[in-house]
């Protein structure tokens, strides 16, 4: 292929092919009035024949808008986060916007850098999936452009909308489910010190107290904000190593998967010897064996709701909006009465 053939077609090439001016091509591509339907159709046909793709950033500079939505994930390896993004993309498409996705890699500093990169691309709004952005950065964003956080913050930030689930209700449903099956020695595996994980931990302890099981409550925690997978594996091993423990409630599905792996390595059968409940009801809860009982967060709904809230902000809403969605326990194969334990 020659260099000339490889050159990307420009608006001038379209104008030459259609026999019109550059401004006429610009009007046709934007769908603006000022040219006849026949001329518009000829221009669009020529653009398609040439394989012309407009320079979105250049148009953004001219028009003052980009129709771009920036999305920053906290953890690309967690299906809970990626399933929320699918909902955001659906909602963004419905509002005529395109999604730019980037990954914070569970690092607050990197997350801020990714946000700055998106701002440099002239995004019209931001959706942050996770709560690892420092408060001072969130405060600046709240004053700068529409910003939605899908996750639980320690406290509201002016100008920033949030979508979270009722962590306390979800944790209570998990502990009550295990207690109703007859489990008394229920341990909790907590994967982080983020607000949502801490709320689930507190609710676990309070519910065990309410059930008269407070003296049997045990928390195995990865008490670091940015702990490694090896840290979580060690926490899971400690949880299953206690022979008195007949059930584990994990703060998310990734932590529950670590418990399942540790139980298998320790020779503890599931659910006969150990019942496990996760949190999020992500894809892995349905494909792992035994299939995981998990507290469902409506991930696609959370994503589309984030896009909806962003559209409201762009339309002029100035009051902050905070949505807390109710979770639902989905019972599968990883939980059973302790009487079924293999001795």
From TrEMBL:
<keyword id="KW-0238">DNA-binding</keyword>
<dbReference type="InterPro" id="IPR028082">
    <property type="entry name" value="Peripla_BP_I"/>
</dbReference>
<dbReference type="GO" id="GO:0003700">
    <property type="term" value="F:DNA-binding transcription factor activity"/>
</dbReference>
<feature type="domain" description="HTH lacI-type">
    <location>
        <begin position="9"/>
        <end position="63"/>
    </location>
</feature>
<dbReference type="Pfam" id="PF13377">
    <property type="entry name" value="Peripla_BP_3"/>
</dbReference>
<keyword id="KW-0805">Transcription regulation</keyword>
<dbReference type="Pfam" id="PF00356">
    <property type="entry name" value="LacI"/>
</dbReference>
<protein>
    <submittedName>
        <fullName>LacI family DNA-binding transcriptional regulator</fullName>
    </submittedName>
</protein>
<dbReference type="InterPro" id="IPR010982">
    <property type="entry name" value="Lambda_DNA-bd_dom_sf"/>
</dbReference>
<dbReference type="InterPro" id="IPR046335">
    <property type="entry name" value="LacI/GalR-like_sensor"/>
</dbReference>
<keyword id="KW-0804">Transcription</keyword>
<dbReference type="GO" id="GO:0000976">
    <property type="term" value="F:transcription cis-regulatory region binding"/>
</dbReference>
<dbReference type="InterPro" id="IPR000843">
    <property type="entry name" value="HTH_LacI"/>
</dbReference>
């Amino acid at each position: 292929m020659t260099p000339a053939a490889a050159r990307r077609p420009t608006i001038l090439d379209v104008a030459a092919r259609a026999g019109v001016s550059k401004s006429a091509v610009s009007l046709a591509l934007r769908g603006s009035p000022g040219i006849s339907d026949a001329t518009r159709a000829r221009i669009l046909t020529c653009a398609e024949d040439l394989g012309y793709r407009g320079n979105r950033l250049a148009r953004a500079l001219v028009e003052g808008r980009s129709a771009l939505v920036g999305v920053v994930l906290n953890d690309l390896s967690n299906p809970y986060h990626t399933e929320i993004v699918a909902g955001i993309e659906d909602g963004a498409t419905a509002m005529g916007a395109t999604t730019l996705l980037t990954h914070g890699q569970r690092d607050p500093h990197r997350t801020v850098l990714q946000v700055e990169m998106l701002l440099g691309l002239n995004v019209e709004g931001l959706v942050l999936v996770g709560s690892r952005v420092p408060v001072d950065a969130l405060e600046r964003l709240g004053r700068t452009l529409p910003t939605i956080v899908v996750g639980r913050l320690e406290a509201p930030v002016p100008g920033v909308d949030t979508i979270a689930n009722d962590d306390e209700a979800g944790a209570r449903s998990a502990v009550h489910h295990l207690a109703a099956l007859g489990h008394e020695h229920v341990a909790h595996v907590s994967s982080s010190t983020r607000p949502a994980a801490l709320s689930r931990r507190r609710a676990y302890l309070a519910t065990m107290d309410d059930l008269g099981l407070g003296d049997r409550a045990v928390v195995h925690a990865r008490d670091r904000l940015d702990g490694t997978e090896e840290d979580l594996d060690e926490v899971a091993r400690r949880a299953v190593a206690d022979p008195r423990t007949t059930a584990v409630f994990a703060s998310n599905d990734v932590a529950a998967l670590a418990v399942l792996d540790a139980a298998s390595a320790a020779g503890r059968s599931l659910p006969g010897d150990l019942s496990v409940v996760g949190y999020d009801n992500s894809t892995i809860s349905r494909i792992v064996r035994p299939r995981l009982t998990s507290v469902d967060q409506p991930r696609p709904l959370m994503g589309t709701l984030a896009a909806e809230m962003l559209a409201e902000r762009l339309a002029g809403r100035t009051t902050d909006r905070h949505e807390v969605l109710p979770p639902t326990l989905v019972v599968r194969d990883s939980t059973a009465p302790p009487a079924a334990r293999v001795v």
